[in-house]
Amino acid sequence: MKNLFRLIRPHQWIKNLFVFLPLFFGGVVFQPSLFLNGLLAFMAFSFVASSVYCFNDIADAEADRRHPVKCKRPIASGAVSIGKAYVLMVLMATIGALCIVALTQEEMKRVGIIIATYYVMNLAYCGRLKDFAILDVCIIAFGFVLRILAGAVAGGVQPSQWILLMTFLLTLFLSFAKRRDDVLRMNATGEAPRKNTSHYNLEFINTAITITGSITLVCYIMYTVSPEVVKNFHTNYLYLTSIFVLIGLLRYIQITVVEQKSGDPTKIMLRDRFIQLIVVAWFAAFLIIIYI
Questions:
Q1: What 3-state class would DSSP assign to 200?
Q2: pLDDT tens for residues 97-108?
Q3: What's the half-sphere exposure (Cβ side, CA atoms, 13 Å) at 286?
Q4: Are 155 and 107 in contact (CB under 8 A)?
Q5: What is the pTM of this model?
């Protein structure tokens, strides 16, 4: 049971909290009915993502056995059979579909299309598309944009173009940081952890991280001072929260470049107390400004 639990990677569900961002930025997160819709979309994305993780580990089993860390994954280590993994994959997708069905008819249809797009895209990613450099990180980033769209539809909120852009850019930044860890391992061992790792090098990755991080910050600042946002939240002070975004990006770059521990963004978020403090401070400041 423990290995089946590891296979669906519930700790990765933290990524699906992006579903709640449209409700938060839209000022409706505390409305019970809309929050419940967002929660159902969150659960649907989480179970569907777990189904993708099962398929990913099935497809990567042979390569994972040669990886110093991934060799401990349930399928690669032999703790879970391929047959059981396929059953779990179907079960997770079915539970995700049931969460979508719990939404109202119109929301169910639109959220269902979004999550189905995510599912098919990620199955294709696991099967072949992840072998293409740059395209691989763009697919990951677009997956988070789909989370934003699902949350917006579930909550009846019109997502700002700034939110969509920031989400894509931020997750692109995190994805490049993760690829940097692969390049470091390739340079140290002489063996590429992924098929596309040889198409990256430190100079390119460092430049990509700098570009995406910088544009993310600029995009956030433009969002906070945009006329529609000022009008919507009735405040001119949202720009003050930019300091937390800047510090958070700098800390992540420090972890990536100085400490060289950018392998898993989720684990960094769950373990790094400084980043957690910055996220809480940003959330509290934003909450105070727009809700109080």
A1: coil
A2: 999 999 887 788
A3: 21
A4: no
A5: 0.90
Please, is 184 exposed, middle or buried when counting C-beta atoms within 10 Å of its C-beta (0-12, 13-18, 19+)? Answer: middle
Chain-centre distance for alpha carbon 3: 23
Helical residues (DSSP H) of the chain, grouped into ranges: 2-8, 21-25, 32-59, 61-64, 82-101, 105-127, 135-155, 161-189, 202-225, 227-233, 242-253, 265-271, 273-291
For the segment 161-214, what is each residue's pLDDT rounded down to a tens digit?
888 999 999 999 999 999 998 898 888 887 777 778 888 999 999 999 999 999
How far apart, in Å, are the Cα atoms of 141 and each of 46, 51, 147, 155? 16, 19, 10, 22
* Tokens 């790094």 sit on residue: 272
* Residue written as token pair 């079915």: 94
- Using 50, 70 and 90 to split pLDDT, how confident is the model at 94? very high
What dihedral angle (degrees, nearest 10) is formed by the CA atoms of 7, 8, 13, 15? 70
CB atoms within 10 A of CB 144: 23
